Amino acid sequence: MAELKCKFCGGSLAVEEGSTIATCEYCGTKQTLPKLSEKKRVLLFDRANHYRRNNDFDKAMSIYEQVLNEDKTDAEAYWSIVLCRYGVEYVEDPTTHQRKPTVNRTQFASIFADEDYKSAIEYADSLQREIYEAEAKAIDNIQKGILSISQKEEPFDVFICYKETDNAGLRTPDSVLANDLYHQLTQEGLKVFFSRITLEDKIGEAYEPYIFAALNSAKVMVVLGTRPEYFKAVWVRNEWSRFLSQIKAGAKKSLVPAYKDMDPYDLPDEFSNLQAQDMSKLGFMQDLIRGIKKLTAKEEEKPATVIKETKVVTNVVNNGAEQLLKRAKLALEDGEFSKADEFCEQALNIDAENAEAYLIKLLAEFKVTSIEKLGDVKEPFDNSKNYKKVVRFADGKLKGDLQNCLDKINNRIREETERKRIEAEKAEREKDLLEKAAEIEEEIFIFKTFPISLSIVLLIVTFIFLQIAPTVVIFPFVYLFFVIYLLAWSGKKLRIDKNYYKYLNMSNSERQKAYKKLGVIDENGNPIDS
Q1: Nearest alpha-carbon partner for 160 in 54, 257, 56, 303
Q2: Which whole number is the average pLDDT over 264-271?
Q3: Measuring CA to CA, which of 59, 258, 483, 505 is 20 to 30 A from 85?
Q4: Which residues of 418-428 are buried (b: 16+ CB within 10 A; e: fewer)?
Q5: How far is residue 360's CA from residue 336's CA, in Å, rounded to a whole number?
Q6: Is 463 helix (H, G, I), strand (E, B) or coil?
Q7: Which residues, other chains included, contact 438 with Cβ-Cβ below 8 Å and sequence gap of 6+?
């Protein structure tokens, strides 16, 4: 029996093996289930559902997509992505205590036209399909109501995105700064969406229709903050991520990040190709208002805006390639090679022929932090696509520096190869010498031990003859012959013993000289075939 968390209230579900639907004993909600073939999948769904219940739809969606990478037939994963795309939050009805859907990310397209919804229906069984269709119908009706209200709203020029309260429920410095900006912009005749004021007469109503209307009509969004976590707060992120999605889809809009009392490199990664504005700089407000007025001018006067695929050419949101490369260099210094590569990719979306971006990608590819260290990599890098792009777009000096690195690598490889060859030849010569030495030692050992054995035999024979036939005349001559023979071999044996022990005590250089004298090796130390 697998245990999964309820996707509505977070309570524990006891799920029978093979089940595709279940009812939560805590909130009483009947719900569809994913495929629970392994514990890892259960943990992934629990984690993603946790993020979705807390309205962190982007994080949740990325985990559901991870599930689909492993199994393209999981209907629940497709349906969960639909919930994230439409920002569906289930809230408890105080009267019936049932969980009702609300939509926080309204789309112009009907949920029934959504490709992930179609996939969920395709792979669902009959029980799951019934629930999906009923929930989709409810979500579609909510969306129609939101669209109906939003169409009646007047268009906005500027949308101010910020965090209103902190975790203690107190007003943030961001709210004060946003308030000042709101009044400055309205004095310039611009229609500004500022939730603190714009939504103050909507208490008791759903805010989504008005937020949706403002997001779709506003030409410029200013995202301001004084802390990194405020930029990444769930509802703040929900607003600016939806605005960015419109820009990526081709909408002619502009997004301006504005920060104060924080490092600009702590801004969300999605802002990395935008020119962020420092609110603490003298003249910031005047520059910002002037830029916004240009962006909200008539269509023929308005500059085009781009996020990644769309081009940004304005005084406020300008070409961010240079800023991206600065961030890439910092990531490279910190050894964050994949992050450096990502920043370069974003820079290349703006300037596709930027040689410096390809150089940083080359360094990240080989995990080095500078061009000097590129010469220390093990293998030549001239087959790298990034290297070929650098050479294609770089100036003469950079090409020369890279060629020097390649020369250094190739020279080192040649030297190493030559060193190994010499060592191999030396080892082979040593092997031959040892084999020759072994042969000589064996001959010496045999020659040394033979006279000893013969001497003993002669002494025994002489003794026997003396005992058996001491009076025979011929025997003295025989005795004399054997004694002389014995003395001759004994003398030779002593000389061999002396030379043998001298050989054993020789150093390698002394043995080399001896080998040359014996004709075992030539003057160059090479073995001579015998």
Answers
A1: 257
A2: 91
A3: 258
A4: eeeeeeeeeee
A5: 12
A6: helix
A7: none
Distant-in-sequence, close-in-space partners of 474: CB < 8 Å, separation ≥ 6? none
Which neighbouring-strand residues pair with 524?
Answer: none
- Contact yes or no for 313/295 (Cβ under 8 A): no
Residue 57 has pLDDT above 70, yes or no: yes
Q: Is the pLDDT confidence value at 254 over 50?
A: yes
Antiparallel, parallel or unpaired: β 88-92 and 99-103: antiparallel
Confidence check: pLDDT of 397 > 60? yes
Question: Is it the case that residue 530 has pLDDT exceeding 70?
Answer: no
472 pLDDT more than 90 = no
Tokens of 143: 């969306």
Cα 66 to Cα 62, 63, 74, 280, distances in angstroms: 6, 5, 11, 41
The per-residue pLDDT for 459 is: 65
Question: What per-residue confidence (pLDDT) applies to 300?
Answer: 39
pLDDT at res. 483: 58
Euclidean distance between CA atoms 195 and 173, whole angstroms: 15
Please state whether beta strands 2-5 and 12-15 pair in parallel, antiparallel, or not at all (unpaired).
antiparallel
Percentages helix, strand, coil for the chain (3-state, rounded to 5) are: 60, 10, 35
What sign has the CA pseudo-torsion 149, 204, 212, 288? positive
> Is 102:88 a contact under the CB 8 Å cutoff?
yes
**Torsion of the alpha carbons at 489, 490, 496 and 501, rounded to the nearest 10:** 160
